[in-house]
Amino acid sequence: MNRLKREKICIAYHEAGHYVTARHFGVPVTACLWPVHRERPRGGTFKIWKGQCDAQGVSLLSPHQERIHCVAGAIAQIAWQEKTADQYMPDWTEVYDFMSPSDCTFKGELCDFPTMPEREWQKWWKAMVEAHAMLNRANGPLWPTVQRTARRLLTAKPHFIRLNEREHSVAFNRVIAHYRAAP
After folding, report:
1. In 53-77, which positions are buried (b, 16+ CB within 10 angstroms) versus exposed (e)?
2. Predicted structure pTM score
3. For residue 95, which of 74, 124, 76, 77 has the smallest C-alpha distance?
4. Residue (of 129, 166, 139, 154) closest to 16 by Cα position
5. Which of 44, 77, 100, 146 holds its CA 20 to 30 A away from the CA of 86?
6. Is the pLDDT of residue 40 over 90?
7. pLDDT tens, residue by residue, 76-135
8. What pLDDT, in 10s, does the model give residues 167-182?
9. CA 31/CA 52 separation, integer angstroms
């Protein structure tokens, strides 16, 4: 599998993890993938993939549920990559490596995990363990839904899905406008 295809699949599983946990908690949600063309230093362009999950009402979740939603993308992405691990539990630093700045935003503030007090960090660890229980490949009850959602993201044209056709989001529409404007 080439780098671009693997990157696209990883991002699809990452966004599917966020999408499925938001749905699980009853939050209206949209998710999408889109290509971005970047300039090469010596001329020409190359393509990378970006993704976004826009869950309206995440702030209405309990703090524990919101933390689960934040780490779910990284947990799903790691689960897809660890194909042979039945009960693989990633360590915190591995999950943190797969989290974007928006994944690390909690209650409107960017979390600085390396300097976080122990008590707060333990809350994030508990959320990661629970997200892993829901999303692991071996027996996570939401894993089949993550797989179906990732496949939908990979095959939809354009690459987006909605929980409900009547739901709209300003942020999501901005991403779609960016997708359509890409060369």
Report:
1. bbbbebeebeeebbbbbbbbbbbbb
2. 0.80
3. 74
4. 154
5. 100
6. no
7. 998 888 754 445 566 667 777 788 888 888 877 888 877 888 898 889 989 999 999 999
8. 444 444 544 554 455 4
9. 6
| Closest residue by Cα to residue 10 from 58, 61, 76 | 76
Residues β-bridged to residue 106: 109
Q: Are strands 45-55 and 29-39 parallel, antiparallel or unpaired?
A: antiparallel
Q: Is the pLDDT of residue 19 over 90?
A: yes
- The label of the residue with tokens 């539990």 reads 89
Burial of 85 (0-12, 13-18, 19+ CB in 10 A): middle
- For Cα atoms 112, 115, 117, give the angle at the middle one, nearest 5 degrees: 105
The CA distances from residue 136 to 10, 33, 96, 141, 163, in Å, are 15, 22, 17, 8, 22
CA angle 55, 57, 62 (to 5 degrees): 110
Residue 136: HSE in the Cβ half-sphere, 13 Å Cα cutoff:
14
Token pair for residue 17? 């993890």
What is the phi/psi pair of residue 131, to 5°?
-60, -40
Q: Is 12 exposed, middle or buried (0-12, 13-18, 19+ CB in 10 A)?
A: buried
